[in-house]
Sequence to fold (682 residues):
Amino acid sequence: MAATLHDVAALAGVSIKTVSNVVHDYQHVRASTRERVQRAIVELDYKPNITARSLRSGRTGVIGLALPELSLSYFAELADAVIQAAERQSLVVLIEQTGRGDREREIAMLTNPRLQLTDGLIFSPLGMSQDDVDRLNVRYPLVVLGERIFGGPVDHVTMRNEEAAQAATEHLIRTGRRRIAVIGAHEGEVIGSAALRLEGYHRALDAAGIPRSEELVGYVIEWHRLNGAEAMRRMIAAGVEFDAVFGLNDTLALGAMRALQEAGLRVPQDVAVIGFDDLDEARYSLPTLSTVDPGRVEIAETAVRVLAERITAGATSTPPADPRAYLTDFSVIGRESTASV
Amino acid sequence: MAATLHDVAALAGVSIKTVSNVVHDYQHVRASTRERVQRAIVELDYKPNITARSLRSGRTGVIGLALPELSLSYFAELADAVIQAAERQSLVVLIEQTGRGDREREIAMLTNPRLQLTDGLIFSPLGMSQDDVDRLNVRYPLVVLGERIFGGPVDHVTMRNEEAAQAATEHLIRTGRRRIAVIGAHEGEVIGSAALRLEGYHRALDAAGIPRSEELVGYVIEWHRLNGAEAMRRMIAAGVEFDAVFGLNDTLALGAMRALQEAGLRVPQDVAVIGFDDLDEARYSLPTLSTVDPGRVEIAETAVRVLAERITAGATSTPPADPRAYLTDFSVIGRESTASV
DNA sequence: GGAAGTTTTTCCAACGTTGCAAATTCGTGA
DNA sequence: TCACGAATTTGCAACGTTGGAAAAACTTCC
Fold:
């Protein structure tokens, strides 16, 4: 079928190693030989067999990306960024879905034989917890994303959840809001995005001398639009007074905004709303949604770079560097939903 | 590092071929031998090297999925469905992004050496056109999705654009609407989703005896929310009268809905709105968006199945079957945006 | 003209697996 | 005890590539 080194060598009248040398731009090849070989390569449309190369070198040029689900916008946009970053490093990305917080499937993924032809994995768990930290002890390069597990035996790339949430809340305070509801808390959670962002929210209140109020905290089970809308409706129905809402992610904020509008409350005149994530969608809602860009692109780039470094280091038997944690820069993006009135 | 057949064979005191036979459940292996080998496999935690297997067999178990961009919700949801379908066939998916309708990159993708370790490709072009049909003549199994190229030399899986668009329009007519605007037409296009769906819209009007009207057709450059909103605003500003809007996809419809609400028009009381695609998002907008499910899951499943068949057929040197076109079933989904008032 | 050094080319083995065919062992019946 | 067929195990080559080192060809300089 496809031409091999042998075919090219036969056509050019040289040994296969010489062809290999030409392909790899080895310098000690006579110009005339090089040219002859190149002509043969073109004529036969020779393409190196990557599988054979992988077998020889032990590297495939493929990295895995395991995430909950692409139909969750945040992860789709993350995957987009990871693929682009990988392409710049000549790596290709194989995507695996573990479901919406399915701990079992996440754990199983770490030993999935399907990862065999991968040089390393970028792993974004949603169901595993700190107790599962030992599971991250794997024999291949691994970079973990997210807020489920900290201080593990591998590199970790994540956002400054607390600081970013604090900044989002301060953004609301700066526009004169004082009764600030928060939507998306998880009952009893002390780690994870929800807890960290809630903590940032509390810090901002404390710093501004605004008393915390349990009735302003909207609890949800999952971070989907529906949950955001329901939590908001409950709060409205309970007669809680508020002049701003912080959705712990954009999806929740958009759901909350829907519930506000249903109830006849105007955004931002009656209630200001801010989200978290900077999804593409936040730019197009009505009104456009203020949010925090947690540094998604930087997360993707860092994760790919660090993974690539680990892969390279592993190949050269350098003594492995200690695992590191990387935190990305964030920025508050003010849009219509928090405009001054 | 990792254990190989040799290591297992040495430990079990047999030849590597016997180990291979055990791994493959070859029947003529003495029970006692089998057990001894299996113990060795467990003890050494032996996992077959997929790369070596691929080199030997010529199959990698990986399929490529080339699509414009994961940050476009439609493609993220398509990718989700493809990955799930592939998993059921024990295939793993490698995703490549070609950009938003970048013809050059799409053409380049077809000969991308990165596809080497792929057994076949599911390709969803957005920038190529019928003129590029010959580019689809590639030497690996290929399944094409979408509405850019028909009747090519490869299998094609797509939706019934015309019929589905006609059904969406008829849904509006059935609720008593007569002045039905359409948003998302492409100037001068005769093929592609826009043209086909526009044709379905026209057929529905014709069938109902409603005169076509050029002023009710909103043209856009791209199918994003912003374009939908702008086209809708232009139509409103021009004083065009209408009581319904058909967005040629959900994103356009959501943008149009935003423009309507800005202008103080109520959905569905003043204007009914329907979209196309059945994105997750359509379930959560305010009001929830009626739409057409074009059979996305079926498209993914069919594409993976057909590709897998071609891959298998290629391995057995069966004479290749003629390329086929597959069309999926659609269904109109009525939600709040077209509710009767 | 030939030694010494440099450039260019070739040879061989190995990466880990599997298909094929051959070799060995076993069981059965004469 | 031996022949014969079946069951079981093994050896070898090959998939296409690359690293290392040897071999061959060419230069340069005395």
User: Anything to note?
Assistant: The longest strand of chain B covers residues 62-67. DSSP finds eleven helices and twelve strands in chain B. Residues 14-18, 21, 28-30, 33, 52, 54-58 of chain B lie near DNA strand D (CB under 10 Å from a C1').
